[in-house]
Amino acid sequence: MPFELPKLPYAYNALEPHIDAKTMEIHHTKHHQAYVTNLNNAAMGTDAEKMNIEAICKNISKFSMATRNNGGGHYNHSLFWETIGPNGGGLPSNEIAKAIEIDLGGFEKFKTDFSNAALTRFGSGWAWLCVKADGKLCVCSSPNQDNPLMDISECKGTPILGLDVWEHAYYLHYQNKRADYINAFFSVINWQKVNELYLKAK
Ligand code: MN
Q: Ligand 1 mean position to 25 CA, how many Å?
């Protein structure tokens, strides 16, 4: 099987009280695992079997809906786990802080715009901070498990931070209060990792 569930780089309870242990465990071992299993099944016997997940996303129009939904699910969650963490939160620093200042009008404006993108995404989807082809940052959202790497995406770029706003990501602890979950997310963002991804994408 070419695709595997990545290990979580911290314990399930490491993000308490912002994201609870039960949500993290179900999200990782059930939801993300299901995307990986279904992606392996969908990729079997197709070109996707021998491609990495980024390349699959970039060429997603050539593949089945099952590959799009589950490949997106695998890519998005892998990025999500990496860009949050127990020592997260606070303000960005280094190059990403400067870029947020110049490209997005500063951290407070970024926080408002990103939160609005997450809040107004109707139904299930993701909010993103991306690096566009011209190297500038942008904030957007996508439906379902689509992402800005995908050639079918309305918003295009390399995602360096993503927020899962599917109900499975927050319902146990936050129920219908998506805004509270979005606010809590800002307490767990691993800005050091986001900065690394920014430099790589640029
Ligand atoms: Mn999810």
A: 11
Rounded to two decimals, what is the model's pTM? 0.97
Q: pLDDT of 78-124, one tens digit each? A: 999 999 999 999 999 999 999 999 999 999 999 999 999 999 999 99
pLDDT in the model for residue 70: 98
3-state SS string over the chain? CCCCCCCCCCCCCCCCCCCCHHHHHHHHHHHHHHHHHHHHHHHCCCHHHHCCHHHHHHCHHHCCHHHHHHHHHHHHHHHHHHCECCCCCCCCCHHHHHHHHHHHCCHHHHHHHHHHHHHHCCCCEEEEEEECCCCCEEEEEEECCCCCCCCCCCCCCEEEEEEECCHHHCHHHHCCCHHHHHHHHCCCECHHHHHHHHHHHC
Q: From ligand 1's centre to the CA of 164, what distance in Å? A: 6
